[in-house]
Model the fold of this input.
Amino acid sequence: MKSPKELSVEHRLLELANEIIELTPEEGDLPLRVIQDLIDDKEIRAIQDYANKVSISRLGFNDHGPVHMRTVCRNALKMLKLLFNAGVKTSLQEDLAGTFDDSVTAVALAAFMHDFGMTIGRQDHELYSGILAYNIISRILDKNLPGEQDLERKVVIRSMAMEGIMGHMGTRRIHSIEAGLILIADGCDMTKGRARIPIEIHTAPKAGDIHKYSANSIDKVVILSGDERPIKIDVRMSAEVGLFQIEEVLLPKINSSPAKHLVELYAGVEGQEQKRYL
Done:
């Protein structure tokens, strides 16, 4: 059974996907079809569910399951839409290797599968995610792009999705705007709802606890059009412990991202002046 939170995120994600394909009606609806398949796929759901069990129950980390991966997808698609509206081309467009819709499709695939490796463990989980995701990505693309003439397109989309998965921790150099958005979108999912279950589970103090307590102080992360750059990220928190999430998680991810030059970052405690980091 899906939780109300998961259903809500799915609804908003599909709304956003519809808005995005309306930006390029001449390109068709590939991103929407793929996102619907990602939502409905039973194997993806099973992997996401188990990744969450390992993350929360065994390792004591925050949510790394269905809600998180859908939220990361929605965050990344919001940023892609802002870039489109600002006239900024994706790397596939700049390289003349694919369309805007191809970039959206690759980002959605990466977002839904980037934490698959948490089913195995935290260390190098981005690499394990790629191993677990490869065949599923191929299966979904084969369904939605079945013609022989689509082979090159499938290779490009799959490769871009794999870059997004492998690069989402900022530990390996990535080179595309699309993969860079996955990196940032992942870092933006840090509100207190993500830490709710780990906080409620009473365990002995352990390394990593700061993540759940700092996330529990983040009230809202807003992604909107920037004043000087296409994307503005505004983080609002109830206590200064949330600055750990900004300075130790989100900011390093943005600094490692090829999309860094497209982002403004503001953060601060509610009722106080927001500090500009980027």
